Amino acid sequence: MLKGWLVLRELLRGAAITGRHFFANMTFHTLKLFGIRAKRRGAVTIQYPEERKALSPRHRSLHRLRAREDGKPSCVACMLCVTVCPSECLSVEAAEDDDPEIQKTPARFVVDLNRCCFCGFCVEACPVDAIRMDTGEIRLAASTRAGLEISLDKR
Amino acid sequence: MSEDAVRLIPADEGSWRLEAYLRRGGYEAARKAVMSMAPADVITEVRKAGLRGRGGAGFPAGLKWSFVPQGGAGPKYLCVNADEGEPGTFKDRAILVRNPHQLIEGMTIAAFGVGIRKAFIYVRGEYGRIAGRLREAIAEAEDEGFLGGGIFGSGFDLEVIVHLGAGAYICGEETALLESIEGRRGQPRLKPPFPAVVGLFRAPTAINNVETLANVPLIIGRGADWFLGRGLPKDGGTRLFGVSGAVRRPGLYELPMGTQLRTIIEIHAGGPPEGVAIKAVIPGGLSAPALRPDELDVTMDFDALARAGSMLGSAGIIVIGDKIPILDVLKVMARFYAHESCGQCTPCRIGTSWIHKTVMRIGEGQGRASDLDHILRLADGMKGRTLCPMGDAAALPVQALVTKFRDELEKAVAR
Amino acid sequence: MFADVLIILVKVVLTLTWTLLLALFLTWVERKESAVMQDRIGANRASVFGLRLFGLFQPFADAIKMLFKEDFAPTFSQRALHWLAPTLSFFFVAVTMVAVPFGDAIHLFGRTIPLQVVDLNAALLFVLAMLSLGIYGILVSGWASSNRFALIGSLRGAAQLISYEVALGLSLVGLIMVFPTLRLSGIVEFQGGLVFGFLPKWGVFLQPLGFAVFFLAGMAETKRVPFDMPEGESEIIGFYTEYGGLKFGLFMFTDFLEVIVLSALATTLFFGGWQVPWLGAGGFVFPWGGSLKVAPWAVTVLQVLAFNIKVFFFCWLQVLTRWTYPRFRYDQLMDFGWKVLVPLGVVNILATGFILAAR
Amino acid sequence: MSEVKMVGLTIDGRTVRAAEGTNVLQAAEQAGISIPHFCYHPAFEAEGNCRLCLVEIEGLPKLDSACSTVVREGMIVRTSTAPVLEARKDVLEFLLAEHPLDCPICDKAGECKLQDYYDRHGLFPGWFLEAKEKRQKKISIGKGLLLDRERCILCTRCVRYLRKVTGTGELGVFERGVRAEVGTYDDAPIDNNYSGNLVDICPVGAITDTDFRFKTRAWFLEKRPTVCPRCSRGCAVIVESVSGYPLEEGERRVFRIRAGENPAVNGYWICDFGRAGRRDIDEGRQERVIKSASPESELSWQKALADVMARIRSVPGPERAAKVAVILNSRMTREELTLAKRLFAEGLSLDKIFFADPKPGAADGFLLTEERVPNARGVLQAGFSPRLPDLDALAASVEVLLVFGSHLLDHFSEEAVSRALAKIPSKFLFSAHTGPLDRLAEIVFPLAVSAEKSGTYINIDGLRQSFGRAAEPAPGVVSEHEILGCLAAGLGLNVGEHDVR
Asked: Cβ contact (<8 Å) for D68 and B190?
């Protein structure tokens, strides 16, 4: 019996919470409609295509290869990212660079976004801080699978 | 004249000439040995005399010879280490310049004792002109029948070849010296096997310092007891002390083993010049750990200096005055060893260069608080872990300087 | 005669239109209310010539979408029954509305026209009967879909609806004991009186426990969260697993209709229907003395408005409930029906009986 | 055989018996105690210059290098005491101090001893604060070998290898101290047939091979042993291939072939000719069944083989001996040869069984032999007497010709072969590689190379060596074993497949 009353109490509390939100927000919406207290947001929803939420600096978005001063990618094609990648989405081929101090450079650096799980392991594994996931590009869509295989060294 | 006869560096006119040497009673000992002694007796006599190697390590010469297998069909060699590369040391040069025949006589006796037919004198590259004088002396001795085939008319032959090095400090190390004579890169060999068993051209080889061998005629000519009487009971003979640095009369002093270091500096070399105090003394060539002024009451012999945490080494005494910053000494030292490391084994190759780089950086005012500890640690990393003694030779003096003069160096680092 | 038919027809059309529009509107309300409750904005993008109106066009867009979607029936389903099921559901719920009075009878062109499609004399029973028949739509849909999830959903639905039907029936018995009639118009009229001289003689004041049981059981009958066992979208999808397009739309629509029907019945039976407190035919007579004369046409308008406001309130309440509570577990659902609501219903009858007998 | 004298010693508290004359490092290794080392290689005398294998030997005042210390009776060695670990730490720190952190671009990364040892014994964090010496990187020292002087740790294994093993001595150490470096004399390139081993013995990535350079990373490689098929020495080799990620699906690549260890045959070395066998596995391969009548269609080898069987069956039994001919080769395994013997010589009673092998080359006096086939002894043991076909005689009488391998052209001109084959109605080629013969054959079957199959070769000294599959077969290829087995089954001949060895 007691349990029943407790349940009832909790039920009423639940309704009170939702109801409170309803009336509070409704009031703000209504006030806003009439141009009063227009700054106060009644809702947390972001109107996506027009409005964008600011990304956290740690947010992992589309990968990029950092460039050296001369514009060549700073990647040395060590393939540690390829090794650590849990979804096997990276494909790197190395080539010879004429500079003996660089020697190794990627001839091909493709990330297959069809497979990528955006874990960021590649960024952590990179010994030369070449790959980063800080482009802020999160709208990744293509009409073909091939369209999501992105060559990072050619961008 | 009789005084000159028992000195390694005689003072008489044209002392390097054969006739001068003969005047001093030269080649009598060799004649005595070859004509009237058994080879084994020669070795026994030298062992009895307590002649310890003058090169640096102080290994008893007679004992060393006795390791060379007696008899046997194959060739055996005698190598004379005249690669006097240790900074602060100039005693062998004096012998080679002033008294080459005594060396040759010593070689003859040693070769006879060990049963050797062919001997090499490895002269450091910088002594090119001295090598010429040595060659002249050899030619003189050969002409008189003191060298070459049938010495003194006996059946004993000895051919002596002067080999000029290319100026590498490491070739003073006996196995590197052998490699160099063989025509290869002067790099130490692994020991064992020791050169007495597998040496030059893989044959048994006796290797001795110039000063060691120059003492041999005195032992054979006047007896082991006489020789012991000139030094200490276990450490016979006199020693050539080369004094350099902040003293009034730098030079070479032939004094009995066991002379007080302070006596040598203050009395014989005249002490530091006016207005200069002694800051440090390196008692046995650059590789010997330095002593502080309060440690100078030490007798100059192998055991006493070892007890004092240093070594007699080549007995080249370097006196450092208080006007010289220790960092400069350290710089010279580090540069020398970094330059002279042969590059064969890791700790020495990289350790010496590392210490050098660190010391130079401190010199440029870029020192870090941890640098001195790093240097000590580096020296520890080299000490006892290298292929040849050069690791120790490079590590110990650096370590000694850093520990004993830490206050001054810390100020230099902080600058 | 012709006029009678015409009047009935007009009333049918008005009632249906009102109900359907309200249901459509309710889909918007549901979205918007839940959004506001959850600090969101909710559907607001449907626009006509750039006019958004807080997404009010969304229901129409949905309707158009549903209409134009492919009419699909699974290969192994029974086509006729597959079609029949949503129709049945829709029909039985929609038909309930004919018995609900919207307002007091009006006098127009010398006729007395009750604002009610048909004034059945056993309307309460009719309503109960129609609501019960709605189960068939669910059962048939599950059966016709030839899909085990759909079947499980429909059987759950049947069990749930039948269980709560009992409580629903019991809760109304007390009302029948109190009210002198089964006729809904009569019930509403009866509620025009006062108890203790000031309190409107509404069912809720006479039968508070009855109302609670009625409303809870009624909510269970609508099959909406927290009573959405038949659907259970996060577990079995439910009886309309195999439905899409217009047919699915009908089911959805039926849901909203049920909400409206329940609100209309709750209003009619327990909240005085179109009665406005202290408003008689001539105007307000306040219990603390004093009166306010109101024109007869205004009285009718006030009454219809009162009815609508009450219905709206219950709709709002149901939506609030739906977005507040999580789903029952099935055993909890059955426990609640049989161990709480049914005994409470019985207690209510007994208490009512005692009070009536004692008086 | 003289009895080897054994010596008993204690290493890390374990009693170890080792042959007299072995060094402490080997003895420890035999006992399962690994002592890190760079400069020591069992093939040469100890040099003791890396100073990494320092161990504590009871009775000696200092640590001594395990590689240069010969075991003595009753010796007590400790390999993991604090001073030993400290010494290792210091030596590794010294080495790393002048070693570039090239690991990301270094081909050796992943199998680099310096990496492994530092990871296990190293000092973390390091305390080298000075500027590293700048040295030349990427110096070509001949035969596709690149020398990186910054990475070199001067273990001088390469120098000693070229002096002691090949005797050519192209490399030497120049300069001294920290500037010491390995180099060729007067820049004369290394030029001997065993230069590839330098890459294998270099403990770090100082000497790398352009053939492998930057192609993949060492840790992706799957390493499986096999026997080198390029001459009759039968050296042990290790085929290193990748067959999954990060390659494209369906791709299998052999990245390199390295020397395996086989004291009975090749020791630790293989010749560059054998090393280049990598190309045989991956390049110029026959990829699918080609039927000249319908060149474009995808045809399974089983279906195509049915055509072969039909052609053989169409020749009446008694005439087969004269009208069906087979050309085999000595690259087939012993098992396949037995199967061929039972099928062609006994089952079908063919008279015309010929052999066409690659032309012999010059032996180099060390490992490489004249015969450029791995199984010439196996052919004899299987009961064949190998002989070349007479093309004119073949053309005159034969109706069905089965050619295994594409080495007819090593012995006859292309023109002569095509003239002869033109007269033969049905000819089938089974070949691992594409070649001019392809267009002359009615159907070409893609064969597996020896690295892709298992079997047995008998080397020039009569040593039987069985080997397993060393690389995943290229898609679509089939082994002679499968072909012969299938032919036998199709022709209704019992060849006792289970006892072909």
From this structure: yes
Q: Say whether D408 sits in a helix, a strand or coil.
A: helix
Is A44's CB within 8 Å of C324's CB? no
C325 and A14 in contact by Cβ < 8 A?
yes
pTM above threshold 0.95: no
CATH number of D290-490: 3.40.50.740
Q: Which of C29, C33, C40, C41 to mutate to test the interface with A (most CBs of A within 10 A)?
A: C41
Q: In the CATH hierarchy, which fold is given to the domain comprising B326-413? A: de novo design (two linked rop proteins) (1.20.1440)
What CATH number labels B18-228?
3.40.50.11540
Size of interface A-C (CB pairs under 8 A): 42
Interface test with chain D among A65, A79, A129, by most D beta carbons within 10 Å: A79
Shortest Cα distance, chain D CAs vs residue B360, angstroms: 10
Per-residue tens of pLDDT for chain D, all 501 residues: 467 889 999 999 999 999 988 999 999 999 999 999 999 999 998 889 999 999 999 998 899 999 999 999 999 999 999 999 999 999 999 999 999 988 999 999 999 999 999 999 887 787 888 889 899 988 999 889 999 999 999 999 999 999 999 999 999 999 999 999 999 998 899 989 999 999 999 999 999 999 999 999 999 999 999 999 999 999 999 999 999 888 887 789 999 999 999 999 999 999 999 999 999 999 999 888 988 766 667 788 988 899 899 999 998 888 888 899 999 999 999 999 999 999 999 888 888 999 999 999 999 889 999 999 999 999 999 999 999 988 888 888 899 999 999 899 999 999 999 999 888 989 999 999 998 888 888 899 999 999 999 999 999 999 999 999 999 998 889 999 999 999 988 888 877 655 544
CA distance, residue C108 to nearest chain A CA (Å): 39
CB contact under 8 A, A90 and D246: yes
Is some CB atom of chain A closer than 8 A to the CB atom of D134? no
Closest chain A C-alpha to C252 CA, distance in angstroms: 24
Query: Chain D, 101-160: which have a CB under 8 Å from a chain B CB?
Result: 127-131, 133, 153-154
Domain D6-80 maps to which CATH number in 3.50.50.60, 3.10.450.50, 3.10.20.740, 3.40.50.300?
3.10.20.740
Closest CA of chain D from B202, distance in Å? 15
What is the domain partition of chain B in residue ranges? Answer: 18-228, 238-321, 326-413
